[in-house]
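ok so I'm stuck.
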Amino acid sequence: MLNKMMNKFRKVVAVACVAGLALTGCGNENANSTSTKGTESDTTKKLSGTISLAGSTSMEKLANALQEAFMEENPGVTVEVEYSGSSAGVESLISGSVDIGNSSRALKDSEKESGAVENIVAIDGIAVIVDKNNTVVDLTKDELISIYTGAATNWSELGGADQPIVVVGREAGSGTRGAFEELLGIEDACTYANELSSTGAVMATVAATPGAIGYVSLDVIDDSVIAVALNGVAATVENIKGGSYFLSRPFVMATKGAISEQSELVQAWFGFIQSDAGKSIVEQVGLIVND
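replied:
not stuck anymore, here's the structure
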């Protein structure tokens, strides 16, 4: 009798143990499953969508480089950039047709009053260029003003050859033109022989035209033209940083409202620009990081 009771007891204990193990196993499986699902959720959460920018042609080199790098880092994102000029870009931002308005000048009070916020992403120098055969390679600020206001019309007046000065500039509404004229204090006082719609057109025209002078963003300078010194100071990043070269301006990526109020994508875009990788791109295209 005692043996039968002991055997029955052992069977009950065995069944309880098996049941306990089964429950424990299920519990572990559920925990592992939950953990795995959580990990998968974290790793698969990536940016996707489209960011639209429009504006300054002078910012094309920078915008293209940032676009390529950001899209490579975020394959699910498309960055669309239109080069329509600074004023047009800010207008597009204010109207709500783009996420970011690129401007190669500081924003106007009227633009800020309309909701545009100025986000400076880099500092650019404006280089004054002449054709490669010009012997005048240094101009004072006053001489530059006299050229663009029409007071000086021949290079011989400035120590050069007896050759007419062909004054080349950007179209009305260009950020480069606005910054250039504002820095010289000659807004609406310039006399242009050619008003062109892009930085590239100014470069090509000056390179191909004897006696021509123009202004372009520092980062596009190549050996097809001469970048003249101003007041004896060469147009270099170092001189702009040091403050000795007086023609410099901000590169702005304006938003409608603060960056913190923008979409996740736009905030990520600015976060990338402010990262070490973004700052490296700014420097690689010949601009100055806005610290």
